[in-house]
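Quick one:
INPUT:
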């Protein structure tokens, strides 16, 4: 696969070749571990191997951080590869431990991309980062919606403190296809988190944990709700939050893309009574999954 060098000073450049329908650019990044702020401010760092995301979910706030307006409009159709990420992370972890010799850093991977988007299957940048991180043993949380993560079971089982968050915002496949048509199926994600749970040990030496993040909760048809919830019993935590309304005065609301706002009109049967639907779903979660901890919003995104 060939791709074009990218500069933040350029307008959207042309690429020599594509990965499927995705324009791919290479970037030498200045840093790879960035100070965590805002919603995940309890972490020391965020780690984003890529910029942009092939899944291009309609409601994703990360589109607002596109390099320019054209790329924001084309969200889901381009990815910037931080080609020097593996080299950078080793330098930055060494620097951290020089200053904090007895304190593993807490790292959230990733905040504005998916580290296991389809491109990763070929580039293996995330895999390279995991390999470098193992000797340093950070406290690592991985956020993804991709079954590709099962490829790295051999590496993941070597971490001593790891949490994998699998994003599944609805239990209705037709809703998933509307809001995130380029993403993996619900069943593929459930299969992936189940395979991880059964193949990665959780013991005193390796404290490996698994979450389903229903953030935001998208519409779910009544006939799908209970069967979906019952399939979540393999994990130890669920994180849930409501969709950010376009009428709310918040950063998330301000960055909601038109595609998601329009889809909310299609699902008026849900959004006209969203608060009630959300609360009913939340109570159903707690009633059916007594052994699974349920958090709302920010409180659930930590390792512990």
């Amino acid at each position: 696969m060939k791709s074009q060098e990218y500069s933040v000073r350029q307008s959207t450049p042309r690429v020599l070749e594509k990965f499927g329908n995705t324009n791919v650019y290479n970037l030498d990044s200045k840093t790879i571990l960035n100070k965590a702020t805002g919603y995940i401010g309890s972490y020391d760092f965020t780690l984003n191997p890529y910029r942009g995301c092939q899944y291009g979910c309609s409601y994703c706030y990360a589109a607002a951080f596109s390099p320019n307006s054209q790329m924001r409009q084309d969200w889901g159709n381009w990815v910037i590869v931080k080609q020097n990420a593996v080299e950078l992370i080793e330098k930055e972890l060494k620097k951290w431990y020089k200053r904090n010799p007895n304190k593993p850093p807490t790292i959230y991977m990733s905040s504005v991309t998916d580290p296991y988007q389809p491109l990763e299957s070929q580039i293996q940048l995330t895999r390279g980062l995991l390999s470098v991180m193992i000797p340093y043993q950070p406290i690592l949380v991985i956020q993804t919606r991709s079954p590709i993560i099962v490829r790295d079971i051999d590496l993941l089982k070597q971490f001593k403190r790891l949490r994998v968050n699998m994003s599944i915002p609805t239990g209705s496949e037709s809703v998933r296809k509307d809001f995130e048509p380029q993403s993996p199926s619900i069943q593929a994600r459930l299969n992936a988190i189940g395979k991880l749970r059964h193949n990665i040990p959780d013991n005193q030496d390796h404290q490996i944990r698994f979450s389903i993040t229903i953030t935001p909760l998208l519409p779910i048809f009544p006939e799908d709700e209970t069967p979906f919830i019952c399939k979540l019993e393999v994990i130890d935590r669920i994180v849930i939050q409501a969709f950010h309304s376009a009428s709310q005065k918040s950063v998330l609301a301000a960055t909601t893309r038109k595609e998601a706002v329009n889809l909310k009109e299609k699902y008026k049967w849900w959004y006209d009574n969203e608060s009630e639907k959300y609360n009913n779903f939340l109570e159903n979660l707690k009633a059916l999954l007594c052994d699974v901890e349920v958090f709302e919003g920010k409180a659930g995104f930590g390792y512990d």
